[in-house]
Every structure is written in structure tokens, then in C-alpha cells.
Specification:
It is a single chain. By secondary structure, the chain is mostly helical. It has 2 domains: 201 residues, no CATH class; 112 residues, no CATH class. It has 16 helices and 6 strands. The protein has a two-stranded antiparallel ribbon. β2 and β3 form a beta hairpin. α2 crosses α3 and α2 crosses α8. The radius of gyration is 24 Å and the shape is elongated. The two termini are 43 Å apart. Bound molecules: zinc ion. Zinc ion binds next to loops. Zinc ion (ZN) binds next to loops.
């Protein structure tokens, strides 16, 4: 079997207890992609666990800060790397004084939380050493030869230049295979919708969110006074903000049936708490009135039909129930 077939085979067949192996494979592929082969003349390339750990933290950072995805099958014992990344995130958010999600590369966490960051990297290296480095190349109790050389306990592994080059030439195939398997694993212990799309967040440089302002003119038909959905008072002297009743981080989508007007202050104090049943019932009633208002005013477009679909299929209740799971 050639290197690429063996590599893909490991990804395809790895166990599903947690996502460590996928993060590891992703880091190695990324390292291959960044390697400048013109500048190298040895046949063996040394890759340190430190280099890998810094990439692994980046992946878990993104999937956690945006979507809080569970990365292991045992809820009582989350994977160590996830726990230390979570604690790094909370220290960062505390220092930045904001819980607003931010892309890793834009966060400047290495400098803002320098000490905590380096401690986190050391913890991740320890976990990789103990659980991933040698296990990755073990399939069904047997070592898959010809992937890389690694001695248990070492701080680095050795990969041949040829293997690394194959990985670089086929990075697209490798990334797709990893993302697919990563999503499959996450589906076993996450009830959240759009898992494939959420996993791909680590490949996207910037989260481009379509402006919500396009929804204002529709919501205006039902709520021209801009009464705040959260506190009930009219919003005056400020542009109303649009609130996702069921958290955006859960749905990863902007839908008219889930958007309401709110004061900026009411919206930001709410964070990502799951709404209670009363709020959900209120949203359902609002949606009925909104649909009626749109039809009355002759608005017959994508938003109207999506709203109608959501009402007919009880999407509010369905997603509300599943987001508690
Ligand atoms: Zn308010």
C-alpha cells in the first residue's frame, strides 16, 4: 500500500472515542503544506510535538469558542486537550473583557495570555505524547509501517521528505477526509445541527456573517414600534439590535423565524442561555403575527415562505428541544 492509501486508511478507521487523532492528522497535513521543499536537503524531517500542539490548540479553540462542541464520548471526563483549551479561552475572555467569539489567528492569545498559553501548550504536548503520537499509527493493534518514526516518550517524530511531499501534494484530499471523519465522530455525542459546517470553521479564515439588517424591514411589519423582545419596552434613541432567540452558536444560521428586535444592552446581557418555554411560546406567537402581517402587506418572497415553513413544521419547538440535549 502506498503512503497516501495508508494515511487515508488510518483516518477512515480510527476509533471514535474522541477527536484527537483527527486534530493530529490535520496538524501534520498543515505542517506538510507549510513546508518549503526547495530549502530542504535531508531525507528525514523532524517534526516536534510542540509545533503540532500549537496547531491542535487552534482547532479546538475555534470549535469551542464558536460552537462549544463536545470532543469526547464521556461527558463526565472530557478530553484533556479540550479542557485545557477551554480554560485558556476563559482566561482570554476574562482578560479581553468580552465573551464574543473570535478567530484564533485574530485573537493574539499568545501575547495577551502569554504565560497561560505556554502552560496550555505544555499540557497539550503531554496529552499528545501519552495518547496520540504512537497510537495514531496503530491500527487494530498493529503498527502501520511507513507513516512516520516515533519512539514512545520522544518530543518529536521523523517523517520522510517523500511522505511529507505526498501529504502536501494531496492536502485537499487529506483535509476533506479528516473533516468528514471528524464530523462523523462528533455526531456521536453532539445533538447540534450543521456539524459538517461547524467543523469546517477551522479552514475558514474569517467568519463572514451576512448583515442581519436585511431582516429589519420584514420585522417592522409586525413590530413597527420596535418593542424589545426581551424587556418589552420600546427601543428608542438607538438602532434596535437583532437577537437570535435560539443561539446562533447552536443554529449557525440566521433565520427570520428566530430573529427579534432587542435593546443592545438586553441582547448582550443575555449571552447564550437556552431560552425558557415562556420565551419560546412568545416567539411562536410572534411568528404567527409576523406571517399574517407579511401576507397582509403583499410580501411574498423567500423570507415569507421560510417563515411559513418554520411555523408549519414547528421548527422553533424542535430546535429548542434539541438544543437542550
Ligand atoms: Zn430591552
Amino acid at each position: 500500500m502506498d503512503f497516501l492509501s495508508k494515511w487515508l486508511n488510518i483516518i477512515r478507521k480510527c476509533n471514535i472515542d474522541n477527536t484527537y487523532k483527527m486534530a493530529w492528522a490535520k496538524a501534520l497535513t498543515e505542517i506538510a503544506l507549510e513546508t518549503d521543499f526547495d530549502k530542504i536537503d535531508n531525507q528525514q524531517i523532524e517534526i516536534t510535538l510542540d509545533t503540532i500542539a500549537r496547531k491542535v490548540v487552534k482547532y479546538y479553540w475555534e470549535q469551542t469558542i464558536y460552537f462549544d462542541l463536545k470532543q469526547g464520548s464521556n461527558p463526565l471526563k472530557p478530553p484533556k486537550i479540550l479542557s485545557v483549551t477551554k480554560s485558556l479561552i476563559s482566561k482570554y475572555q476574562h482578560k479581553a473583557n468580552s465573551t464574543h467569539p473570535i478567530k484564533y489567528l485574530k485573537s493574539n492569545v499568545e501575547n495577551i495570555c502569554e504565560t497561560e498559553y505556554e502552560i496550555t501548550i505544555k499540557q497539550v504536548i503531554a496529552a499528545l505524547k501519552q495518547d496520540v503520537s504512537y497510537r495514531f499509527i496503530s491500527l487494530g493493534g498493529k503498527i502501520v509501517e511507513g507513516i512516520y518514526e516515533y519512539e514512545k516518550g520522544d518530543n518529536s517524530l521523523c517523517m520522510t521528505l517523500d511522505n511529507l511531499r505526498v501529504l502536501k501534494d494531496n492536502y485537499g484530499i487529506s483535509f476533506e477526509a479528516i473533516n468528514y471523519r471528524w464530523s462523523q465522530i462528533l455526531e456521536n455525542f453532539n445533538q447540534t445541527p450543521r456539524i459538517c459546517k461547524k467543523v469546517r470553521i477551522i479552514d475558514i479564515e474569517e467568519i463572514r456573517r451576512t448583515p442581519l439588517s436585511k431582516f429589519i424591514k420584514y420585522l417592522d411589519y409586525e413590530n413597527p414600534e420596535h418593542s424589545c423582545f426581551i424587556c418589552g419596552k420600546n427601543i428608542e434613541g438607538e438602532t434596535p439590535s437583532l437577537d437570535h432567540v435560539i443561539a446562533w452558536s447552536y443554529l449557525y444560521s440566521d433565520d427570520i423565524w428566530n430573529l427579534v428586535f432587542a435593546h443592545r444592552s438586553c441582547n448582550s446581557s443575555k449571552s447564550n442561555i437556552i431560552p425558557n418555554e415562556q420565551v419560546v411560546n412568545k416567539l411562536e406567537k410572534r411568528n404567527l403575527r409576523l406571517l399574517e402581517a407579511l401576507i397582509e402587506n403583499g410580501v411574498n418572497n423567500k423570507e415569507t415562505s421560510e417563515l411559513q415553513f418554520a411555523i408549519e413544521h414547528n421548527l422553533v419547538k424542535k430546535f429548542w428541544i434539541s438544543c437542550q440535549g
